[in-house]
Amino acid sequence: MAVMTYAEAAVLALQHEMNADANVVVLGEDVGRGGIFGQYKGLQAQFGAQRVIDTPISEAAILGAGVGMALAGLRPVVEMRVVDFALCGMDEIVNQAAKNRFMFGGQGRVPMVVRMPIGIWDASAAQHSQSLESWFAHLPGVVVVCPATPQDNYSLLRAALASGDPVVYMEHKTLWGLHGEVDPTHTATLGQAQTLRAGQAVTLVSWSKQVQVCAEACAQLAQQGIEVELIDLRTIWPWDRQSVLNSCARTGHLLVVHEAVQAAGFGAEIAATAAEATGCKVKRLGAPRIPVGYAPVLEAESRISPEQVMAAVHAMLK
Predict the structure, then answer these.
(1) Of 123, 139, 197, 227, which is least surrounded by CB within 10 A?
(2) Burial, 37: exposed, middle or buried (Cβ in 10 Å; 0-12, 13-18, 19+)?
(3) Catalytic residue among 16, 128, 138, 186
């Protein structure tokens, strides 16, 4: 076990995979100098510019190259800097990477990991602060991953590279400096949630940075005698229905919390599934349907606070 940052955990995961398999390559803007968040620090010096490839500023070209590399037998890690920029290359994801295996009867595979950092990036405004995981959950043919801790960023990145299918890998833009213990021997399974806190009053489901907010709310609720079961979903697709439904059946209440806009967010899918399967009472918390503002007072309108989570739990238990 070693203590490292969320970004350092990603570097360690890539080092392991690149040492183990010469077909693992990295491409994107600024990856040679370590990436804008340090998530590739030292990799070009270790593996060379042939495997850690700096690219021109064209998301469509970067993603297109990644798809071609994957079809040719490589395992590319494609860096998009932030999810907001990936929108310039959506056709390559939606119509090429996601559909190739299906359209060609499994003859083609696209084992590509596309890193698209999500979430509110402090004082970065509307074009750099979006959480679009539900877009990709709606897209057949891709896996969607949202790690919340350094350990998960290590273990899930390795699992994503081993999956054999295109993975939309969505790290949070403000988690890069988060410290935590990382066990290099620990493995993760895509589609498997993690129960972070046991409880009988309410099932609380979240992912990415919002897990921290929910954990803080749960700790305060426990002081009030309300024990909430907190589940970190970890992967948005496939998502761990069974763990969530088992918990909802016990508690009879489900609260889903995410930083993404609440309207048509992935929380709606979880809530509907749980209500249909267990009849539990459901509630969602997400951002209002507004662009994230630059001014702190406007940016705050798009954030979900521990106090809001606590208020939602109290409202459900009335």
Answers:
(1) 123
(2) buried
(3) 128
Q: What tens digit of pLDDT does each residue of 108-150 get?
A: 999 999 999 999 999 999 999 999 999 999 999 999 999 999 9
Residue pair 68/77 in contact by the 8 Å Cβ criterion = no
Catalytic residue flag (residue 128): yes
List domains and CATH numbers for the chain. 2-182 (3.40.50.970), 194-317 (3.40.50.920)
Residue 239's SS3 state is coil
Residues 199, 201, 207, 212, Cα dihedral to 10°: -70
Asked if the bond preceding 238 is cis, omega within 30° of 0, the reply is yes
- According to the model, what pLDDT value does residue 40 have? 98
Distance CA 178, CA 184 (A): 17
Q: What is the mean pLDDT of residues 41-57?
A: 98
Distance between CA atoms of residues 121 and 174, nearest Å:
6
Helix 266-278 with 241-251: angle, nearest 10 deg: 60
Give the mean pLDDT of 216-238.
98
